[in-house]
Amino acid sequence: MKHNAEYEPSRQMSLDEVRDYMICNFDHPLNVTTLAAMANLSPSYFGDSFKKAYGQSVMDYVTSLRINHAKRLLRETDMKLRELAKTIGYSDEFYFSRKFKKEVGVSPSAYERASERKVAVYSPSLLGHLVVLGIIPVAAPLDAKWTPYYYQQYHQRIAVHLKAVETPWNDDDQEIMLLAAKPDIVISHIELPETTRQRLSAHGIDVLTLQSSGWREQLREVASYTGKETACDSWIAFYEAKAAAVCADLQSVLKQDKFAIIRLYRDGIHLYNNKAMKELMCDDLQLSLVEEETAPCNRPITLEQLASLDPERILLFVCLDESTRINWLTLQHHSLWRGLRAVQNGNLYPLPSNPWYEYSPVAMNRMLDEMLLMITGKSPNAIQGVVHGAPFLCEL
User: Fold this and answer.
1) What CATH number belongs to 119-227?
2) Which of 345, 273, 335, 352 has its CA nearest to residue 311?
3) Beta-bridge partner residues of 262
4) 141 membership: H or E segment, kind and range
5) pLDDT tens-digit map of 192-205
6) Where is the Fe/B12 periplasmic-binding domain (predicted)?
7) Do residues 337 and 343 touch, judged by C-beta distance below 8 A?
């Protein structure tokens, strides 16, 4: 046990410093009176301030540190219960067992035998990795406005709804909600700050940072970590077969038609693509774009340049702000716009940001469905994939 936070009796500690001391010394005897003295506060005022700042009472926070560390030891070691209890600060193994069952819902021995681990994610797109493996996280970003698909499908099954913020680890409320979910593992797309990793580790929470850039490889990483390799292989095989079927249907309609992906923002026109769309259209569906960009782009172009490209088909994003809407209403009356082949032939396809801005297995599957329906008019339900006895499309 490392004790890097030292208590200096001559110096008044801040609330954060007392919390850090607790994190580093949770295996020592701790009580509200002693901790309050470190901050030069009365026990009652210290207790109220602590709960307001961190969402738990002082001793509940200590219990959380101890029990979560016990969960990690149960997962990673063969330590005997008596030794484990002493390691985390309990002298009585029977008291520890009762406390563990109260907090976790099962006894230490039952937890040790269980193969399923509680997972939390910071990103909505990572939720799109978990659900195809049959994993429902205990905490994930869910919002009726920003993540409508996942909210509608899973809001009653996910206990803690995190906020969809760009830097969740800088949000104290977000961290409080995450800790309340008591996950065993947090999965992230990007490397979390070391201070965040240390705090999660102090609560016995492992962090899996995905190293791969492609969704298939990311899915395999998650599957390997959670023991879902069979489900992963089945889902990828399902997707590949479905993509091949959709590709054949589209090619019979499109022939040599080329696509432009256009994004309208304020008074500008942008030639656009993102990682998900490029993989879907160019790799999975073997479609052609008017200009083959090697990387995601959002390049401004003029209406005259678009008219010069004159694509057979246009996928169109219109941002929702008022100035963009005015630009879009005006653009529809411009002779150059109305003269585009895609517009004249009714091959203009407005797209929502959801799922087209997301990169995940679920999003890729949904985009396949939308492409099939937009181009051919065929219902995606005609292409079913059955894995483990259940049609995927009923779930996704």
Assistant:
1) 3.40.50.1980
2) 345
3) 271, 316
4) strand 139-141
5) 888 888 888 888 89
6) 118-379
7) yes
